[in-house]
Specification:
The structure is a homodimer. The first copy, chain A, is an alpha/beta fold. The first copy, chain A, is built from 14 helices and 30 strands. Helices cover 24% and strands 21% of the residues of chain A. In chain A, helix 7 packs across helix 8.
Chain lengths: 521, 521
């Protein structure tokens, strides 16, 4: 049931609702144009009077923990997604809530995955009212089809922190699946049989939720170190047989591309970074989890070796490729936000060159600066871009909600944002007249790299000048678009949208940058 | 000018004011009897719009930083005391404020030291209205003499966190002296020419203050790791020639005793811990910074070696003695709260067995539990105890405010709290009819160890039973008192107090446990 809502035009010319799931929403005002007011969310003051002096907070079951948290209809339950498609907790949590007869919950994960398909039955039965968080696979389709009761609210990792911190989303109960924990609730993701790396996406939840439950399959003596999540923020600890399948964190977008075209694009991207003068001693970069971005890192590594250049830091998701660069001395540090393979997990446990970060340090727009803008270059994916460099990452050209935003919007603030993308997919051009969904404003996107050439945003005269004599195929974006349009021929039927809104996309400052409409069947 | 205030009797029978420096104060209600209401303090929401996207927050001078923070009359300026008597920052800060013509500031250090004597001139001239924080040396005398305009408010380390967290003390500007920092404001105490160890006493300040200024003498490239204080909470960075003299952190109470009596008491304490069955594999203990407590650790170490016993963790202040125990494999971890000598600083930088803690993890009573109650034994000092085991740590029998509380009150919640103290000092008995100032309720103090015998709190029947056949000189506290009173002879003239209040002592939950009165001249 998509919603017929009063829409207003925002600063990007997109029509957006001013009320999202009953909460007042501010239309996007332009990059850097919205100034927040007021104070941060303030969690209740607790007292040691109410916690066991032994420090032992272990309770017998998930059900007992939910009871002790006072679970009731209409509450918001959150979790982190560090297990990605290997999460074993959240279906159990909502199964338990269902058996307890609880209704109308809001699920607020940092991302959902295909493994969470069972949540559909909980939405059908009214246990879950709606989900706010990245949707893809079956849940993405369910929401895209207008079947979810509430609007999907797509936020970046930084935007999720901002929403919690600013009190826009109040979490009643946070569930922290923890590969290792002690009875006090200190816990870590970097060790234990289910080690998944970091727990940083659950950090805001642990700080701001009314009640925090740590669930672990590896209880160790106090103190569990490192304590990525602090037991002082934890109410209860539950011990289960298995909390997640870490071998499944390598899923979806986190495998290197085998496509010759994409490998070529990745190579071109690395050459551009070098030619533009970015690849200098002490520089920094981030490459997303997409297959092309991973390949980029491998090409850049070779160029760095040739030139004898060392980075100051690389922003992860750690992968075995980044780990090798750390081990080869090509960077002082990897700043980890999450972990994309088991070699990354091992290395972050063993190598002190890995530094744990969180959406607070890296991405939160409503902080005193963040790390994203310090990066010299960031390489990201996109589903569509337009000739003004506006980009989409959440919907495909068919209008279906199929990706989360991840850190994508946050990363756009780097000193040089590069999108390496094929110029068409399945006969559909990627450079379009207008993106289906606006997720990133063009003024923040500096370079598009396709197999047909590199387009530099005209605003970046410095980059245009720096690469003029590089021999790289620098072209106007309009030129590449025309060539692809000619090649692909008559455009496929574009999806038609109804006036029913099924979701909104938040900008990093919490304003609404676009709406997602239900596709006409 | 001590204050004539309306006083009410609290649950400990002590007369306390209900208004402290203009803020409503709750009289002590008994251990575990006060339940806080409401929500934590909520700092303003900031925006990256207002911070340099380069991440470079360096400004030219302290004066410029204070200006940018909007310093004005009546504000509260805070700092951590990790440099102890080697702090070089805070006199400069208030000298700068004085030159800027600012008046009526409240100084809110986590502790002050004799090096801060120049603050007296700022109090005389009205630049500083009053100090809230541990007072000793010249500042202690100044306040004791009733010369300070406001009341001294003595809080434990945990109580200081609680007061900030609960919004009882609002910090306008926090100054973080940092031995190493990057331009973004990430900083650490464990390295750099002025390395002092931890910065944990400044953590609450960094989280809750409106404005945070990091001052360093060792600016490094981003990222400064570890980041004990996160740059995302920092507004400005100032670079000066020297922020502190780390060689002076070994000051006052942090030297091992040479007194044969006190060495004997320390040995007796160690033997008691063993005899009581506390010294078992996986146990934990904390020994304060006092000379006797340090000696205790050395004796216990020998007993542990003999028995082949290994601790799970020791709570620091790290000293070279604890470091040796870590290196000898006598403990898995040292949980550091501060650092008491340079060997401690070196080790915490190099040995991953050191775990950084803060008053939040260790001491905050208004959290979801804290570490203090998990400890198997804690060994602390005291200036006086009474026969009901009530103890004093802030005033001497002459009524002068001469010590801070430190973590003392917080540590009382351990499973076994032991006070090794000489039975008299300078012909003044330490076991008294009534403590001059009540700082720790007797129900939390389990054992007193003197050179004349060990007194166990009658409430601890388990300890009495466990040590019955130990051969240790277990005696009634009344017996020891009588013996000392006889020995010392006619009591010296006790100080007489005026009805003017010069300070209050807070309990760990923010309630007022006692008042400090001005001594009659």
């Amino acid at each position: 049931m998509g919603q017929k809502l009063k829409l207003v035009k925002n600063a990007a010319g997109r029509k957006v609702p001013t009320l999202v799931n009953g909460v007042k929403a501010i239309p996007f005002k332009g990059v850097g144009r919205y100034s927040p007011k007021g104070v941060k969310a303030a969690p209740p003051i607790r007292s040691c009077n109410d916690y066991p002096s032994s420090g032992n907070k272990v309770v017998g079951s998930l059900k007992e923990a939910l009871k002790k948290c006072g679970v009731k209809n209409g509450m918001t339950i959150s979790n982190h997604h560090h297990f990605r498609n290997g999460d074993l907790m959240m279906n159990q949590v909502f199964d338990t809530a269902a058996k307890m007869g609880i209704k109308n919950l809001r699920w607020f994960p940092s991302a959902s995955f295909p493994c969470h398909e069972p949540m559909i039955k909980h939405m059908e039965s009214g246990v879950i009212h709606h989900i706010e968080g990245s949707l893809n696979g079956p849940l993405g389709n369910y929401a895209s089809d207008g079947k979810m009761k509430g609007l999907a609210v797509l936020r970046s990792h930084g935007g999720r922190w901002q929403a919690i911190q600013d009190g826009e989303v109040h979490i009643d109960i946070a569930i922290i699946a923890a590969p290792t924990a002690d009875p006090f609730g200190n816990c870590t993701g970097d060790r234990g049989p289910s080690a998944c790396g970091l727990l940083g996406f659950g950090l805001a939840d642990s700080l701001y939720a009314d009640h925090v439950v740590v669930v672990t399959d590896n209880l160790v003596d106090f103190p569990c170190v490192p304590w990525q999540i602090q037991g002082n923020n934890v109410d209860h600890v539950v011990v289960l047989d298995k909390v997640g399948e870490p071998e499944k964190i390598v899923s979806g977008t986190t495998q290197i591309t085998k496509s010759p075209d994409r490998l070529f694009i990745a190579e071109l991207t690395a050459k551009f970074v070098k030619a533009a003068g970015i690849m200098q001693d002490g520089f920094s970069f981030q490459a997303g989890a997409g297959g092309t971005a991973l390949a980029f890192a491998i090409y850049l590594r070779e160029l760095m070796k040739e030139a004898g250049v060392k980075a100051r830091f690389i922003r992860g998701g750690s992968t075995k490729y980044l780990v090798e660069m750390l081990e080869e001395g090509l960077t002082d540090f990897i700043l980890d936000g999450q972990t994309f393979d088991l070699e990354g997990v091992r290395s972050m446990r063993e190598n002190s060159g890995h530094i744990n970060t969180s959406p607070f340090t890296s991405y939160n727009w409503h902080g005193k600066g963040n790390f994203a803008s310090i990066l010299d270059a960031v390489v990201l994916g996109a589903t569509e871009v337009d000739v003004n460099f506006n980009a989409n990452v959440v919907t495909h050209s068919d209008g279906q909600m199929l990706h989360g935003i991840g850190g994508w919007q946050n990363c756009l603030f780097s000193k040089c944002t590069i999108l390496p993308i094929p110029s068409f997919r399945n006969r559909i051009p990627i450079i379009v007249d207008e993106v289906t969904t606006l997720v990133g404003p063009g003024e923040l996107i500096d370079v598009i790299v396709t197999e047909r050439g590199i387009a530099i945003n005209p605003k970046r005269e410095d980059l245009i000048k720096a690469t003029k004599k590089s021999g790289l195929p620098i072209r106007k974006i309009e030129e590449i678009k025309e060539e692809v349009d000619d090649l692909v021929g008559a455009p496929l039927d574009k999806p038609e949208f109804t006036d029913e809104v099924v979701g909104v996309v938040k900008w990093v400052d919490g304003t609404v940058i676009d709406s997602i409409h239900k596709v006409k069947q």
